[in-house]
Amino acid sequence: AMVMKQTGLCRTLLSSMVQEWMRNVNPWALQRITEILLEASQRGYWDASPEILQDLQSLLISMEGVIEGR
After folding, report:
1. What are the C-alpha distances in Å from 27 to residues 5, 20, 46, 58, 64?
2. Helix (DSSP H) and strand (DSSP E) numbers for the chain
3. How far is it, in rounded angstroms, from Cα 18 to Cα 9?
4. Which residues contact 25 (CB under 8 A, 6 or more apart)?
5. Residue 4 above 70 pLDDT?
6. What number of other Cβ atoms are within 10 A of residue 54's Cβ?
7. Distances (CA, A) of 28 to 20, 36, 51
8. CA–CA separation, 12 vs 2, rounded Å?
9. DSSP secondary-structure letter at 15?
10. In 10 A of CB 49, how many CB atoms?
11. How many whole angstroms separate alpha carbon 18 and alpha carbon 39?
12. Which backbone phi and psi does 45 adopt, to 5 degrees?
């Protein structure tokens, strides 16, 4: 199986400017992308640092509140 390394996609997703834009334009997509990245790590397909995983988990939790508010 191919293991992904930390990529620009994740850094871009975690940037505050991109997060804010996606929260406003399509919070469901932001939530789904975050879920996919976390799942890839859990399955061993992505070798993410603990810090990135913690940031993604926090983002996912915050997105639940955003989506419930819509």
Report:
1. 25, 9, 23, 15, 9
2. 4, 2
3. 11
4. none
5. no
6. 11
7. 13, 12, 23
8. 22
9. S
10. 11
11. 21
12. -85, -15
Half-sphere exposure of 53 (CA within 13 A, CB side): 12
Cα 40 to Cα 52: distance, rounded to the nearest angstrom:
13
Q: Are 37 and 11 in contact (CB under 8 A)?
A: no
Tell me whether residue 53 is exposed, middle or buried, using C-beta atoms within 10 angstroms of its C-beta: 0 to 12, 13 to 18, 19 or more: middle
What is the model's pLDDT at position 2?
55
- For the record, the structure tokens of 52 come out as 């990135």
**pLDDT digits over 29-70, tens only?**
999 999 999 999 999 998 888 999 999 999 999 998 888 887
User: How far is the C-alpha of 54 from the C-alpha of 21, rounded, in Å?
Assistant: 21
1 touches 44 (CB < 8 A) = yes
Residue type (1 letter), 61: I
